[in-house]
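Hey team,

Filing this mostly as a record. A colleague (T.K.) asked me to run one chain through the structure pipeline before their review meeting, and I want the input and output archived in the tracker in case anyone asks later how it was produced. No errors, nothing strange. Just documentation.

Input sequence:
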Amino acid sequence: MVRLNGLNTLSITRNHMTGTIPPELFSIRNLENLFLYANQMRGSIPSEVANAKKLKILSAGNNLFAGTLVSEIGQVSTLEQLDIGFNEFWLRLPTEMGQLTNMKYLVIEDNRFSGPMPSEFGRMSNLETFLLSQNLMKGPLPIDLTNLSNLHEWRFAHTGLGGDFPTEFGQAMTNLHRLEMGGNNFRGTIMTEFGYMTQLSWLALNGNDLTGTIPTEIGHLVNMTRLSLQDTLIEGTIPSEIGLMTKLENLNIDKNNLTGRAPEEICALRALELNLFVTDCEARGSVGIVCPIPDCCTFCRRGESSNSSP
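Output structure:
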């Protein structure tokens, strides 16, 4: 490998490569970009990764890697992009990853990471994209993650995380464009502070134990194109302020305990960009929404509206 010290970028993406990562790769003095994406490689990332003093990009997603993620990954202080998604890494995320303060793009989705979310990740203040969905974690979101104020895209659907969603995130993460947190164990009401996240174009809160009503402040999200609130415990009526989302394309609010009539302000969006609007059908003596089809709703669901106990 000594003869490769002038090598800056090594890419073997989509080459049906097998075997493990040679530890000697990380001794290449000037290596900055290593692309191993979409192969059939096994093993794990060797601890010798700490020797990569100039590495900026490590792309190892869509392989057959497994085992624990070595703590030495936190010593690669130059890392800006790390993709280990769609593998079989397990156990806890190393807290040492919090030392990666130059990180901008972090993909660890579709693995088997467990345990709590490390609060140390809040040190990655330059992070712009954080994809964490489809893991086996538990516990709340650490308040330290409010330091990730440069995030544009944050996906942590189906991770097992839960508890009360900290309201501090509303004012701290005003640069977010996409937030996916569906299929988790979050509870409590939908926070009014979502109204501060005016850059949001995609918000998915579905499949959580959310209660209370939809706050009118959600109408401040005028850049919204996709809003998913289905399969929760929310009740009350649909706020007319959603009609202020003139860019809205998909609105899913079925499998809830909502009642009343779909506001005319939302129905008017069907003449703009809204091509999917799903509610629960009105049922006599039960919950559901009066919503003309197809002039307002595209369709409604029957007999699936309540997620609550009898």
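Quick notes for T.K.: Residues 101 and 124 are 5 Å apart (CA to CA). The first helix runs from residue 168 to 172.
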